[in-house]
Amino acid sequence: MINRVLIRLKIVQIVYAYYQNGGKNLDTAEKELFFSLSKAYDLYNYLLLLMVEVTKQAERKQNAAKAKLLPSEEELHPNTKFVDNRFIAQLEVNEQLRQFAESQKKTWENESEFVKNLCEKIMATETYQNYMEAETSSYEEDRELWRKLYKTIIFNNDDLDQLLEDQSLYWNDDKEIVDTFVLKTIKRFAQDECGNSLLLPEFKDDADKEFACKLFRNAITNAEEYRTLMSENSKNWDMSRLAFMDVVIMQVALAELMTQNDIPLSVTLNEYVEIAKHYSTAKSGSFVNGLLNAITKSLRSAGKLDKYPVDPETQAKMRVFWKLLYDKQFISKTKYERLTCKEEFSAEQKAGFIARQLVETGQGTKAITRILKQAFPKADLVYAKAGNVSSFRNEFDLPKVRCINDLHHAQDAYLNIVVGNTY
Fold first, then answer.
1. Long-range contacts of 137-145, Cβ-Cβ distance < 8 Å, separation of 24 or more
2. Which residues pair with residue 203 across a beta bridge?
3. Helix (H) and strand (E) counts for the chain?
4. What is residue 373's three-state secondary structure?
5. Under the phi-then-psi rule, with left for phi > 0, alpha for psi from -120 to 50, and beta for the rest, what region is 125?
6. What are the pLDDT digits (tens) for 68-122?
7. pLDDT digits (tens, 9 = 90+) for 212-270
8. Residue pair 373/407 in contact by the 8 Å Cβ criterion
């Protein structure tokens, strides 16, 4: 559930707080980052529970009406379509959600007044009225009702936003992003899964968790380099007069630009410009965009940025020269097409690149083997496949952590000898 949009935002916030608190303890700040991300996942579960609680409130309302001294016919025999909503019944018995409620002791029972008002607001909507009056009834209609209600009533709800902010400072900026994942979860549920529909996991995979760790540490440990780049490319701007949030945003953006080569340049730039627009000054979006573009050009000129596609301005400036190199056969047709392409690399292009790298690695291994045999004729050469080492790590629970230091290279070298001799 925690995607890279949310990860970037949290890293910017934690890096800002790190400096505000004196920049003393990187490990503590990293723990704070992952705690903050875990709180976003708590909010996701909490908002799912809200739909269940609103349905329970509707049932309580019907039961109270039945218990009146002189209930009407309609009160004695109410329309229970909303109360019996099959999607909500499925959500209520969902095992993951029940475990969250039990382990976190987090329910809506203490917010009864808010839940009551929200229930009344929902019942007053045309969406609710049309649903209750419809002659047809299906699981799909039950699920679609809550998708519409969430999108129109819960998504943009100032009272709810204030309530959540009062409960946790971590939720102040999270709800807008988390809302999108609640809506995605509603659409994912299926009737035949009963209470076993899977909620979104906290992290999609280990790669996102490692992305967060690596980006956070690089943003801080390489801060001097990144701020020098800002200063060199800011022309007439005095760095000391810049909004500090802008500096932090660009610092994290540069960490991603220079260490995450698998992320397209346009994606990185757009993400941090959006953060600047929403979380800094009114002019920050355009300023951050301009300075990051200037730094990007500078890095390309220095050969320190290997991202495709090349930005349009550089392509326009260099196209004639690249064409000359191609015509004179100094670069291949493939290289020329990569330099002048407008789109990101396709999955097939990336697969082809990986395949070529594997071939070249194999050829290099053979050459190194011959050299080692000549240099050390009495030594035994140990061969090991990376996949075997990875399996060995998993089998014996030996984690590999790249974001703290480079010790993992030494560990890999040792493990390759051990695994190579064993397997």
1. 137/81, 139/86, 139/87, 139/191, 140/191, 142/85, 142/86, 142/87, 142/88, 143/86, 143/87, 143/186, 143/187, 143/189, 145/82, 145/85, 145/87
2. 2
3. 20, 0
4. helix
5. beta
6. 999 999 999 999 999 999 999 999 999 999 999 999 888 898 899 999 999 999 9
7. 999 999 999 999 999 999 999 987 666 677 899 999 999 999 999 999 877 888 889 99
8. no
